[in-house]
Write a structure and sequence with these properties.
The structure holds 2 protein chains of 2 kinds. Chain A is of the alpha+beta class. Chain A is built from 9 helices and 21 strands. Chain B is mainly α. The chains are: A alpha+beta, B mainly alpha.
Chain lengths: ~375, ~280
């Protein structure tokens, strides 16, 4: 039961920077997800909190205690690894009780706490089995159970679901979320899967090259990405990104998305762009959709031929090209689509994102 | 046709097997018959008269004493046992260090250890003899143990390094977040998992110490430290060779080695293949 604070945390491997000047305050009971492409430093951060990786500089506090010099065993955090790392020579029960045995906890107490974990995770019938006799999902559960019995101050998950198949992953995701509600503990969770990040997190941290790009609630980072990287990383399919020239005509500002394809700039943003010649436009696929009408002021309409259609049942993803770049649009009331068919699209102008073409940061 | 091929194949197997086992069989047979019969021509494969005379002699049952085999056996056991234990303890720790830690000159040190194995042992006999004589540990069990430990450690490191490498690093990491010290994680988790490899390394070390002749022949002089292979030479006189006695003492030497090897044979095979795939 504790908060975790990182102050100016830096990790270097020789000259290579893995994590740079990270400041982070994780309050008690928060479900925090670190997400980013591989090599962004998210796992390194987690391992530094666990004490498995030495810190180059900075400070780590767990429950207001400076733990920089403490061994992993004295930090009272539990870690769940991607490959589960169950002890192969012990039964499930022994695996669960191992940490308590090492801590010389009374046998009755061990029995009691293992029983609790077994019940929480539904491992009743598997207690006498060895890890090699378990399925992937069961192993994952045992790994979580092993973390639970210690009653740690914080749980650290390092891509715990990446080794599971898609269906099981969804199921375990829900279980982890339920577990968090039941245990009321701080959880720091590392993943490269943005769907996992969105569904689980109270707060998401998006990392890249050792830096924090953005911190915020899932909805916040989805709706208001602060730069192109976050915009394309969060959301599936990724946000459509287009470079556009700024064209002024009749006192109005337009974005040239393709030859003779001019999208008007929303009036609220116009004043920000007076000095600009070029910007990057981001439009989520759900904000470009086929439309029958073309009258609303909030929308901008254009016609385009379909390159490819991918029906998904609830929606169909339509692929079109602007300036030789593939753009994905979502059609929410799917019908049969023919390749090459010309369709009228509507873009929700209030939902477009405008980024600086040099700094790649949002303009607002 | 198929049948003939099969029979032919098995005859070939039998022939090769006989070829391989022949010296062993000859030793066993000869250990239980008197010397003249061994030297008879043409060779007599099945003894006319079985006897355990040489065994009773060397183990001084009924008061006969030819060669102090019991003392040699004890020397062999003590030297092999302790040199194995020490070599395994050091080698295992070394293997763990090479598998888990990064330190300066790691690859060079590893290469150096492997090169040390390439040096023919006999070429060290004279320097060792002089050194040990000056140190006053010539003709002692301790001296021989030191040499055998030095011979066994590089191989043990190489073999156990491969085994520790195959245990995922996360195993010890999770143990450490589970409340173990680094040593506890090693002792409770990694050591049991590397058990087969360490067992195999122990057998190799034991057999090498048990069979070694060249260095022991230089470093041991008397009944105080001579091992069985050296003791065998006691049957060599100026004008005669007691073949029966030699074969008998060879049997004393071979039997424990065979028993131990059979006991851990499973580990041996997995040890050789498992450790072998290390990158």
């Amino acid at each position: 039961m504790a908060n975790v604070d990182l102050k100016n945390l830096t990790k270097k491997y020789g000259d290579v920077i893995a994590v740079q000047n990270m400041d982070l305050n994780i309050p008690h009971n928060e479900f925090l997800v670190l997400v980013g492409p591989s090599g962004c430093g998210k796992s390194t951060t987690l391992r530094m909190i666990a004490g498995l990786e030495e810190i180059t500089s900075g400070e780590i506090y767990i429950g207001d205690q400076l733990v920089n010099e403490k061994d992993p065993k004295d930090r009272n955090v539990s870690m769940v690894f991607q490959n589960y790392a169950l002890y192969p020579h012990m039964t499930v029960k022994e695996n669960l009780g191992f940490s308590l045995k090492i801590a010389k906890v009374d046998k009755k107490e061990i029995e009691q706490r293992v029983k609790e974990a077994v019940q929480i995770l539904g491992l009743d019938e598997l207690q006498k089995r060895k890890p090699s006799q378990l399925s992937g999902g069961q192993r994952q559960r045992v790994a979580m159970g092993r973390a639970i019995v210690r009653r740690p101050d914080a749980f650290l998950f390092d891509e715990p679901l990446s080794n599971l198949d898609a269906k099981l992953r969804t199921q375990m995701r829900t279980e982890i979320k339920k577990l968090h509600q039941k245990l009321q503990t701080t959880i720091i969770y590392v993943t490269h899967d943005q769907v996992e990040a969105m569904t689980l997190a109270d707060r998401i941290i998006i990392m890249k090259d050792g830096y924090i790009e953005q911190i915020g609630s899932p909805i916040e980072v989805f709706n208001n990405p602060i730069n192109v990287f976050v915009a394309t990383f969060i959301g599936s399919p990724p946000m459509n990104i287009l470079e556009a020239e700024i064209i002024k005509r009749d006192g109005k500002i337009y974005f040239e998305l393709d030859q003779d394809v001019l999208m008007p700039c929303p009036e609220s943003k116009a004043s920000l762009l007076s000095q600009k010649n070029k910007v990057i436009i981001g439009i989520r696929s759900e904000d470009i959709s086929p439309s029958n009408s073309n009258t609303s002021d909030e929308f901008w309409y254009f016609e385009k031929n379909i390159d490819l259609a991918e029906p998904l049942g609830t929606e169909t993803q339509l692929f079109i090209k602007l300036k030789n770049k593939e753009i994905i649009s979502r059609m929410y009331n799917p019908r049969e689509i023919e390749i090459g068919e010309q369709i009228n699209f509507a873009v929700n102008l209030n939902k477009i994102h405008i980024f600086d073409n040099e700094t790649k940061k949002i303009i607002k | 046709m198929k049948q003939i091929k099969k029979i032919g194949f098995w005859f070939l197997v039998l022939f090769i097997l006989l070829l391989v086992c022949l010296p062993g069989i000859w030793i066993f047979v000869s250990a239980f018959r008197p010397n003249p019969e061994i030297l008879s021509k043409p060779a007599n494969w099945i003894p006319d008269r079985w006897t355990i005379f040489e065994f009773t002699q060397m183990f001084s049952i009924k008061g006969y004493v030819s060669v102090p085999a019991f003392k040699y056996l004890m020397n062999s056991i003590i030297i092999s046992f302790f040199s194995t234990i020490i070599a395994i303890t050091i080698g295992m720790m070394g293997g763990y260090a090479f598998a888990r830690f990064n330190f300066k000159g790691k690859n060079k040190i590893f290469l150096g250890l492997m090169l040390a194995r390439a040096v023919p042992g006999i070429s060290l006999s004279l320097p060792l003899f002089i050194l040990f004589a000056k140190l006053g540990i010539i003709n002692t069990s301790i001296g021989v143990i030191i040499v055998y430990v030095a011979m066994n450690v590089p191989f043990t490191i190489w073999l156990t390094d491969g085994f520790f490498r195959q245990i995922p690093k996360e195993m010890s990491e999770v143990a450490r977040t589970d409340g173990c010290t680094r040593f506890q994680a090693f002792w409770n988790i990694e050591l049991p998992l590397a058990g087969p490899g360490i067992g195999a390394a122990a057998i190799f070390a034991f057999l090498l110490s048990w069979n070694e002749y060249a260095l022991a022949s230089v470093l041991t002089r008397t009944i105080e430290s001579k091992t069985l292979p050296i003791g065998m030479m006691d049957y060599l006189d100026e004008f005669t060779i007691n073949w029966a006695g030699m074969c008998a003492i060879a049997v004393v030497m071979i039997v424990p080695a065979i028993i131990i090897t059979f006991m851990v044979q499973k580990h041996l095979v997995s040890g050789l293949t498992f450790g072998g795939v290390k990158g």
